[in-house]
Specification:
This protein has ten helices and 20 strands. The chain has 448 residues and is an alpha+beta fold. The chain has three domains: 53-64 and 175-248, no CATH class; 78-158, Dipeptide-binding Protein, domain 1, CATH 3.90.76.10; 253-441, Dipeptide-binding Protein, Domain 3 (Dipeptide-binding Protein, domain 3). The strands form four sheets. Strands 1, 8, 9, 10, 11, 14, 15, 16, 17, 18, 19 and 20 form a twelve-stranded mixed β-sheet that branches. The protein has a four-stranded antiparallel β-sheet with strand order 4-5-7-6, with no helix packed on it. It has a two-stranded antiparallel ribbon with strand order 2-3. Helix 5 (269-278) runs antiparallel to helix 6 and helix 9 (399-408) runs antiparallel to helix 10. The longest helix has 47 residues, at 2-48.
Length: 448
Amino acid sequence: MIIFKRRLLFWLIRAYLKKWGKVIVFSFIAGLIIFFILFYTSSILIRLIPTQKNITIGIAGFYTTDSLPSFIITKIADGLTMVDNKGEVKPDLAKSWVISDKGHTYTFTLDSNRFFSDGHYLKSSDVNYNFSGVSVSRPNSETIVFHLKEVYSPFLVTVSRPIFRNSYIGTGRYKIANVELNGSFLQTITLVNNNDRFDTEKYIFYSNNNVLKTAFMLGEINKMTMLPDSQYEQYNFNNFPNDTVTKNTEYYKLVTLFYNTQDSVLSDNQFRDALGYAIRDNFAQGKRAYFPYPPGVWYYNTTLIPKTQDLTHAKLLIEASGQKISALDIKTLSQYYSTAQQVASDFAKLGIKTKIEQVDSIPSNFQIYLGDISLPKDPDQYTLWHEKEPNNITLLIDKRIDKYLEDGRQTIDQSKRQTIYDNFQKYLIDREPATFLYFPYSYTVTRK
């Protein structure tokens, strides 16, 4: 009986193999081939599988939907033009333009292949700038014409301002996916890549840098940016093995000592000049600056000689001025208090004692004010130094400088503008209404 069962099992197996043997062998060989293909191509296949690229970024400060940081705005929107690192104006949403009528008319031809994050293709009706003293016409969907009442040569830079449709819908790589508010201030904002839904950036806003750094240490965020330093209490983020620290120079912010040129002491040009020569040549907080423009831009005057520290010359200038001043007052923003202490130390080498007072904003009355300038991407600094401008906080009165500033914003030819602003820089430094200190460093810390 047992022999019969064994023979039956043998016959069944032989019959099964006879019928399905080729299929089994083929499947086995195919399986081996697929196994080896997957084995050797697994790394490539893994890269093809969509992965979530979430990053959570912390920023200190109070922002609203109308005052987003510029580096966020540039991710979600573009302007008609863009400005490169040399200050040169380049095409963006406008692929070309023509300036006519002696600088009064700007005709832009739009790039019709550009579209907003909601799929709407760019049309001239979407360009919604609202400039005072400027009328607009739109001959067709790809052309927009601006008619300026007065010539204004920085206009090409002005139209680099981002363009939005309906609540921050822009033409950038990212779109806004979510916004959370705390009252009127931003609490979080989330961006999503238009071409990759797995690529998201969530920004969380904190009240100050200390709170921001604590959140980073607790793991609430994996990146923080716009930091004035890379310190956490007594530690430095450079010393943490999983943290990467990147130092940037903010070339469009200029920390500056402003002198009240109508003050009984500081009205003396030689005395102001002496103070400028007393300032040290290095600041740990930023890259030393001697002129009112960032290096590398086309309008930076490379022929000027910087006023590096020269205490001997400074003392001679004070002697020549006839001033017998032994004390000065500096009012400073809180973030520059340590800089004010360094300046006071430099002035002490001239025998001048300095009283430092902390303020929250630009004071209406001061001898010396330590603050900053947000530099425009055009050489025009009319509002900062022209006698008739309310932002001329140094109260500088100089007809020659006023004329250069007036001519600079009414001259279209770039080579002629360069000559004008070369002269402007020369005479501004000579008059010394302010001493330029440094372009501040900022730090970005990323955790692996």
